[in-house]
Design brief:
The chain is an alpha/beta fold. It has 8 helices and 9 strands. It has a 6-stranded mixed β-sheet with strand order 3-5-6-7-8-9. The protein has a 3-stranded mixed β-sheet with strand order 1-2-4. Strand 8, helix 7 and strand 9 form a beta-alpha-beta unit.
C-alpha cells in the first residue's frame, strides 16, 4: 500500500477498518489443504467422534464425507491460524474405495452447508495401499493381501463400467422414444463410480510405496481421467512415470516414520519434485499438523511453496 497511489479510491481506508503494519511480514494467498480429516476425525480425538471409516465392507463409494463433517471441530480454527482458508475433507483409508470428499471454506458455521466451497469439484478417496487388506485381513475377510486389493479395485470398476454403459444405452433409447426403454436399477455406489468414469469426480489415491503407485497409475490410465496420489512418500522413485501421466503428488508437510510404509521418505522429498513438471501439495491429515503446511513444506523454497500450497492444490 505504501507504494500505491494514495489518491486512488481503491487505496482509501474504509470506515471502521483496521490498519495492520505489514513490515517484515509475508502476505500470501489463503492456503489450500488438499488432504484433511478435520470434521470427520474432530477434536477431541476420542472413539465417539471417529467418523472417518464405514468399515464393515471393503467398498463404500456411496458414502459422503460431507454427511458427517462436524463444522464445530476446533481444528478448523487451528488450521485458520496456520493460514489455511479452504480444504478438502476426505474419509478414512480402511476401505478399498472410501467415499466422496467435500471441499470447505474455513469459515465459522454451525453446519457443513455453511462451509461448502461453491462450485468445487467432488473427490473420491481410493486407498491404493496395504491398509484395506490389513484391516480386513485381521477379520479373515476379503481382501487380506495387496493382490486382493487390486482384484477388488478391478471388480468395482468393471461393475461401474457396465452400470455406465447400461445408463447410456437407456438414455439413447429414451431419446429415441423407444417404448421398451427401461432405466437400470439405481445403485448409489455405482452412481459415484460412474461419475468418476465420466470425469465428474476426481480420484484421490492414498499411496506410500512406488510399487503401489505404479499399478495404480496403470489403473488410472485404463479407467480414470484424472487423479492425484496422496502421501506418496516414494513418489520420487517413479517421478518420471507420474509426470508423464500428469498425476499430482500430495505430500506431507512434516510427518513420516510413524509406521513401516512411510520410513523411506526423506525431508527433501517435496523439494525434489519441484524439478519435475508436476504439482506438489503438502497435505496435513492430522489436527496437530495443520499449522505446518507453509512453515515446513519439505524444504521447498518460498516461491515454490506458495505455488504448491495454493496453485497446485487448486488443480
Amino acid at each position: 500500500m505504501a507504494r500505491s497511489n494514495r489518491s486512488d479510491p481503491i487505496c482509501r481506508q474504509p470506515p471502521q477498518s483496521r490498519i495492520v503494519d505489514g513490515k517484515g511480514h509475508w502476505v500470501t494467498p489463503g492456503l489450500i489443504d488438499v488432504h484433511s480429516h478435520l470434521g470427520v476425525y474432530p477434536s477431541p480425538g476420542v472413539e465417539a467422534n471417529s467418523d472417518g471409516n464405514e468399515a464393515n465392507l471393503s467398498g463404500h463409494a456411496q458414502c459422503l464425507g460431507r454427511a458427517l463433517s462436524l463444522a464445530g471441530d476446533p481444528g478448523f480454527r487451528t488450521a485458520l491460524a496456520g493460514g489455511i482458508t479452504s480444504m478438502q475433507i476426505l474419509p478414512g483409508s480402511a476401505n478399498l474405495i472410501g467415499g466422496r470428499s467435500v471441499v470447505l471454506k474455513n469459515v465459522p458455521s454451525v453446519t457443513y452447508q455453511g462451509m461448502k466451497f461453491p462450485g468445487a469439484p467432488q473427490g473420491l478417496r481410493w486407498p491404493a495401499v496395504k491398509i484395506p487388506s490389513g484391516f480386513y485381513g485381521e477379520r479373515n475377510t476379503f481382501p487380506s493381501t495387496r493382490m486382493g486389493n487390486v482384484a477388488g479395485y478391478r471388480e468395482q470398476w468393471v461393475q461401474a463400467q457396465e452400470y455406465l454403459r447400461d445408463q447410456q444405452e437407456y438414455e439413447k433409447k429414451h431419446a429415441a422414444a423407444n417404448k421398451d426403454a427401461k432405466p437400470p436399477k439405481r445403485d448409489i455406489k455405482l452412481d459415484t463410480l460412474a461419475a468418476v468414469l465420466k470425469g465428474d469426480i476426481i480420484v484421490h489415491m492414498h499411496c506410500y510405496r512406488a510399487d503401489e503407485m505404479a499399478p495404480s497409475s496403470t489403473c488410472r490410465t485404463s479407467w480414470l481421467p484424472r487423479a492425484a496420489f496422496h502421501h506418496a512418500v516414494e513418489a520420487y522413485k517413479v517421478a518420471d512415470l507420474l509426470a508423464e501421466q500428469g498425476v499430482c503428488a500430495a505430500m506431507w508437510a512434516d510427518w513420516w516414520g510413524f509406521k513401516m510404509r512411510p520410513t523411506t521418505v526423506f525431508q527433501k522429498t517435496s523439494r525434489s519434485w519441484t524439478r519435475r513438471p508436476m504439482a506438489v501439495q503438502s497435505c496435513t491429515p492430522t489436527r496437530t499438523k495443520v499449522t505446518h503446511l507453509m512453515a515446513r513444506s519439505g524444504g521447498i523454497v518460498n516461491r515454490h511453496a506458495v505455488r504448491s500450497d495454493c496453485l497446485a492444490a487448486s488443480w
